[in-house]
Structure formats: structure tokens, C-alpha cells
Amino acid sequence: MNDHILILGGARSGKTALAEEIATRAAKKPAYLATAETLDDEMAERVAAHQRMREGRFDTIEEPMEIAEAIFAAAQEHDVILVDCLTLWITNLLSMERDVAEEVETLVDTLDTIEDTRVIIVSNEVGLGIVPDNALARTFRDLTGSAHQRLAEICHHVYLVVAGIPVVVKGDAPWKDAN
Length: 179
Description:
Layout: E1 5-9, H1 15-26, E2 30-34, H2 41-54, E3 59-62, H3 67-74, E4 80-84, H4 86-95, H5 100-113, E5 118-124, H6 135-154, E6 157-162, E7 165-170
Parallel strand pairs: 1-5, 1-6, 2-3, 2-4, 4-5
Antiparallel strand pairs: 6-7
């Protein structure tokens, strides 16, 4: 049975820091699967800063679209795979007019087959705000919410990070074992 983790939170909530802490504490050979695409200078700077911060701690895999295949391949060599982030992946899929629900099911099916590698998925919780004023934003919010629900079904651990404080939604709290 898998021991996968879903970590949700708002922008700059501390969700990636928690994911990295769990990954580096638990892994001998962690991988970082980044889904961001550098479409402008500001995003390129953000990606470069993130790469510098994790240099030497993770093997980095950059894959904006085919994350199920990338996770499956990385699981052959790594004991922990941190995926950052699901919402960027969904954005990438929408921009290419791919079927997000079908892609999420492929991801779920892949995660179900991976038992010896822990997968940690980071995603932005986007459903706590107002109803978006345009159809694309509402579609994104709805698809992301559905993806979160589907992944939460199969992950043993689900955490919500608020202002840097992790809250256990499902499972246990591995950060409490730090002392």
C-alpha cells in the first residue's frame, strides 16, 4: 500500500517548505519533479531561484505535462518524489486543451502502482475564495478541486498549510517525530 502525501495551501503558505522537509528527512535519494514552465522573465527568475535552493538536495526532473510518466520513471531510481506543483500542471494541461479529468485519473492509476516510493504532491488550495468572474477561472477552480478530492482519496496523508503551520487533514504528522 502506498504512503503518498498531498499537501495543500495558499500561495506562500509554506507548503513547499513542508514537502521538502518531509522529503529530505525520509529519503536517501529524493527527486524533485517541477511542473513550472518559464514563459516570461519573472517566472524564469523564480525557477532559477528554486533550482539554486534545492541544488545538491534533490535530483531535479522538469516535466510540465507528462507527470504520471515522469513519476513512474523516477520511482525506478528514487525513494521519494516531490511534485511541485499540481496547479501549475493543471494550468499547463488547460493551455494545451487536454482533458484534465482524464489526466488526473492517469496520475491516480500511476500512483496506485507505486508502492516502494513515496510521492509528495504539492498544490494550491484555490477553492477558498470568491467565485471567479470568468468561465476559464471557474473551470480551473472546479478541475483543481476535483483533482484534490480524487488525490486525497488515495493518499494516506493530506495536509493543509496555513501561514506556515501544517494541519493534518488525513493521516499522521511526520514533522512531530523531529525531536
